Amino acid sequence: MAIFLGVDTGGTYTDAALLEAQTDRILGTAKSLTTRHDLSLGIGRAVDAALQDAGVMPADVAMVSLSTTLATNALVEGQGGRVALVFIGFDEGDLERGGLAEALGGDPVLRIAGGHTHAGAEAAPLDLPALRTALATHSVMGYAVAAHFATRNPAHELATRDMIRQITGRPVTCSHELSANLNGPKRALTAVLNARLIGMIDRLITACEGHMARVGITAPLMVVRGDGALISAAMVRERPIETILSGPAASIVGARWLTGVGDALVADIGGTTTDIAMLRNGLPEIDPLGARVGGFRTMVEAVAMRTSGLGGDSEAHLITEGLEGGFTLGPRRLIPVALLAVDHGAMVHDALDRALRGTAVGEYDGRFVLPTRFEAEGLSPREATLLARVTAPIPLGQALTSRLEVAALDRLVARGLVMLSGITPSDASHVLGGLTDWDGTAAEKALTLLARRRGGNGMQIAPDAKTVAQAIIDQLTAQTATHLLEAAFAEDPRFDGDDTAALARHSLLRAGLEQHRGAIEISARLGVPVVGLGASAPYYYGAVGKRLGAKMILPEHAGVANAIGAVVGQISQRTTGLVTSAGEGQFIAHLPSGPKYFDNQTAAMAAMQDALITEATNRARAAGAHEVTLTTTQDLQKATVEGRAMFVEATLTATASGRPQITRTMS
Fold first, then answer.
1. Residue 220 carries which DSSP code?
2. DSSP alpha helix (H) spans, 169-183
3. Using CA atoms, how far apart are residues 202 and 237, in angstroms rounded to an integer?
């Protein structure tokens, strides 16, 4: 029997599950805290514990598959390495399209002349001397390259890539390698995000491969893509953007495998995010517009997933404006105080006890900062000074000497160079007794401090820690229910095009969910069941189901659904190409190597299809597929001119799929 090992590395936990492929039997599972400073530690502990739980020897594992939310979390939280965008043939206004300037977040843009026309002809010569000069003026971790109409002719992106690699040795992402679609700024945005994630995903894969080698697992390592398909670790190192929504995609596959449900909303709560998707007839829907994560619409094919910065470790913000008060959660993830105290108990308790002995609660009481030990480049003097002060976990008030440093701290957090610790729903759950994994006493002290804070009405916000804790959990319930309602409205054809966020928050809907009875009687409920996934789902999601009047399905092994979903998928690689017309009797096949001209439509189409089949097959085999199955499609667009049907363009696709190669089969 072939034994598959699934591993999922999330923001808080790393999960592992062992599956006997032929019988679909789960042999063992385990969870361990994700260790961001050295991912191999958390991966190793989870893998070793799962092997021990299953009684399986490392050499008997035939395949390992990895899913992760690290890339998704990084984009939601605005983190990642500093990169430069080489923008070829575009004007300044193009930076404002598609959220590109926002995605760059102040990272440098190197605008140089070049680019092509829609037909693939050179619009302007590529200015390589200007590029060489610009490269000497910036210090970055990697580069994204986007050229005008690169999908019609990639020559300028390829030449730019070669020069950057030769001069800097840094990783380079070309936009045409990530998408065959037009819309240059959107391709540029996708390339920027890919370049920003390369270092993070490389560390993850290296950590996993390193532990596999140490314990004697010789099986190939696969990674779950955002659409639920698998790709090889080598390929994902070059295209880490494809792992955004990797963890959520694995959870959808795992939910279907665990429950057998056909139509349902799947909600997966992790430490950093809540991911919601729709299953229809047992299959996840693919977003035709590209994955949207952290406010950015990419060109990455992925499951139609709504990801929000709401998780068990989301930052709890006290609302001090107005008389109502209350809390809001996320989108930033904090290390829960209860978790920080597990490894740094003396420092945490000393700081909390000193604050509790005071007569007034300071703004930074109950909050801490710790370094991540990642490489730092391109820091301002103020950022460098602040980072040098954070050599170990310390109270936040000790790290900041003035309010002028708050903005610098936020930039260090966004760069992933430091992490913050503070009050989260996980802390509230420890105070209320729902969770017991970490230091509940530290959580209670932190929430006692928070209870002493003053609201907008000038009064103390709560009499004790438990009252505050319940308010935070109630807010998590409310925000989760709202996100599920938004997803449900978006999936209902009756409300197509409507403002789903406004509908989900409408007072009439709220009254209906509460089964209002008065001069008007209103009833409403969620019309499909909800599959709740995540380690904390059994604790949080009962109240969510009750609020929505929905059937809540909490399957066994819900806490490791991602790890299970990671090993039950297959490899799939799809390539897309265009054939256009430059005039009557003139056809252009936009091949991966560049445009090729034909005087015959049939010949142009055949050349394009052959090239796509070759590329898809090569990609599938590079991704680890053993036996490849091919499918092709053609979408022709024609126009009628003076009663004659004229060819406009054709979009061709080739899809190569297959199961991963495994190293051994046990008898």
1. P
2. none
3. 6
Q: Report the sign of the C-alpha dihedral through residues 24, 28, 32, 37, in that order.
A: negative
Distance CA 612, CA 576 (A): 7
Report the predicted TM-score, pTM, of the whole model to 2 decimal places: 0.73
The amino acid present at 624, given as its one-letter code, is: G
Closest CA to 633 of 591, 570, 576: 576
Radius of gyration, alpha carbons of the chain: 26
Whether the ω angle into residue 331 lies within 30 degrees of 0, i.e. cis, is yes
Asked whether 74 and 416 are in contact (CB, 8 A), the reply is yes
**Which of 5, 123, 100 is CA-nearest to residue 57?**
5
Residue type, 77: E
Q: Find where tokens 């807010």 sit.
A: 475
The first and second tokens of residue 615, run together, are 């590329």
pLDDT of residue 384 exceeding 70, the answer is: yes
Reduced to 3 states (helix: H, G, I; strand: E, B; else coil), residue 437 is coil
3-state SS, residue 531: strand
List the structure tokens of 407.
């903005």
pLDDT of residue 426: 96
Element (H, E) at 652: strand 644-658
Q: pLDDT of 59-96, one tens digit each? A: 999 889 999 888 877 777 767 778 999 999 998 888 88
String of DSSP letters for 245-314: THHHHHHHHHHHHHH--SSEEEEEE-SS-EEEEEEETTEEPB-TT--EETTEE-S---B-EEEES-STTE
Token code pair at residue 538: 């059994």
d(CA 390, CA 274) in angstroms, rounded, equals: 30
What integer pLDDT is reported at residue 666 of this predicted model? Answer: 33
Distance CA 334, CA 319 (A): 18
Give the pair of three-digit tokens for residue 645.
């049907």
Mean pLDDT, the chain, whole residue set? 89
Letter string b/e over residues 520-547, b meaning 16 or more CB atoms within 10 A of that residue's CB: eeeebebebbbbbbbbbbebbbebbbeb
| Contacts (Cβ under 8 Å, ≥6 apart) of 352 | 337, 365, 366, 442, 445, 446, 449
The DSSP output letter for 122 is B
Please count the helices (runs of H) and the strands (runs of E) in the chain.
21, 29
| Integer Cα distance of 153 and 174 in angstroms | 12
| Closest by CA position to 383, among listed 404, 353, 358 | 404
Residues 244-272 as b or e (16 or more Cβ within 10 Å = b): bbbbbbbbbbbbbbbbebeebbbbbbbbb
If we measure between CA atoms, which residue out of 88, 295, 305, 304 comes closest to residue 175?
88
Contacts of 299 (CB under 8 A, 6+ apart): 178, 179, 181, 183, 186, 187, 190, 290
The burial of 346, by beta-carbon neighbours within 10 Å (0-12 exposed, 13-18 middle, 19 or more buried), is given as exposed
Q: What is d(CA 299, CA 292) in angstroms, rounded to the nearest whole number?
A: 9
Report the alpha-carbon distance of residue 631 to residue 614 in Å, rounded: 12
pLDDT of the residue at 664: 40
Q: Which of 396, 399, 365 is nearest to 382 (CA)?
A: 399
Three-state DSSP state, 85? strand
Q: Pinpoint the alpha helices (H) of 452-516.
A: 465-491, 500-504, 507-513
Q: Which of 203, 148, 156, 194 is nearest to 290 (CA)?
A: 194
Residue 518 neighbours by CB distance under 10 Å = 7
Give the residue-averaged pLDDT of 271-278: 88
Q: Is 172 helix (H, G, I), strand (E, B) or coil?
A: strand
Structure token pair of residue 60: 């008997």
- Going by the DSSP 8-state scheme, the letter that residue 116 receives in this structure is B
State both tokens at 214: 């140490």
